[in-house]
Amino acid sequence: MNTFLSTFEAVATLLVIGVVGFWMVSRNLVKENFFSLLSPLALEVALPALVFVNIIENFNPAEKAGWWKLPAWWLVFTLISFSVVSLGLILSRKETRSEFGLSLFYQNGLFIPLTIIAGVFGINSEYTVDLFFLMILYPAFFFNTYYLFFHRSKGNLQWSKIFHPVFIMTLLAIIVRMTGINTYIPGFVVSGLQMVGNMAVPLLMLILGGNMLFDFQRIEKIRIMETVRFIFFKNLLMPAVMLLFLYWVRPGINIALILMLEASAPPVTAAPLLSGREGGDRELVNQYMIGSFSFSLITIPLFIYLLGKLYPLL
């Protein structure tokens, strides 16, 4: 039960920060473009700094001989997710199938798992580095495939999304750590980058909470049944299928934990924005987001608790 409570507290912390962003908007303390201005700071400065520091501080190549295989487990996860999404698309309404598929397939794959790992096991846990390695290809995949759900057969390859600062800093940190250059980096540099990196998750959750309220204020009709259907697939069926897979395959505890967190995570925060950009129903996707994030307060701790039954060391 300690695992359930620890995970619950970590998810609740995220929601509290999101509520603060929600409150800032409700009191007119910030303008709508405020969170758009914060996004580059979070995604292109704070998050890359967090990744770099964690890898050079906690990655030991001698003890993790197979670290380079971790991205292959992300591919396994993606294939499993696609099978659930395929079923969801069949059972979803034709008019909103694109929004449903996009929100179900692309999870908040870094920030939610990162915060939970930090809250339960500590930010310097080996799980943190494994998360960065396992998800290294996810941002490039997401930004260069999401439009397919809206039947746009061709899109421009976004090299800036492939060679994103997070990807670049991950590769740089691996090189620095494997060559031993990290021993020559002054401590104050590492400490400074760590302080900047620690802003990443709070900033992202403020942005999420604020943007949710801006979108929520535009909602004309609350679509309960569609949101409930989405919550069933995203918060219950997806992690349940992953739990069955882990029961059958039994990978290492590090991989199992990260895969379960990925399967349990709510939709990626960019889903409403990108849906609107493609001419989709941004209002509905925002309802998916709010519903999934709210229910994740219970469903993420529940599935991590169940995972602990398979892996008693959790």
Main sheet record:
none
DSSP strand (E) fraction? under 5%
- The general outline is globular
- The CATH class is identified as Mainly Alpha
**Overall strand count:** 0
N- to C-terminal distance: 11 Å
Radius of gyration: 19 Å
Overall structural domain count: 1
Q: N-to-C SSE series? A: HHHHHHHHHHHHHHH
Helix content: over 70%
Q: Given the helix and strand composition, which structural class is it?
A: mainly alpha
> Which architecture does the CATH hierarchy give at level 2?
Up-down Bundle
Short description:
The chain has helices at 2-26, 34-58, 70-91, 97-105, 111-121, 126-134, 138-143, 159-162, 165-179, 187-197, 200-216, 224-249, 253-264, 271-277, 282-310.
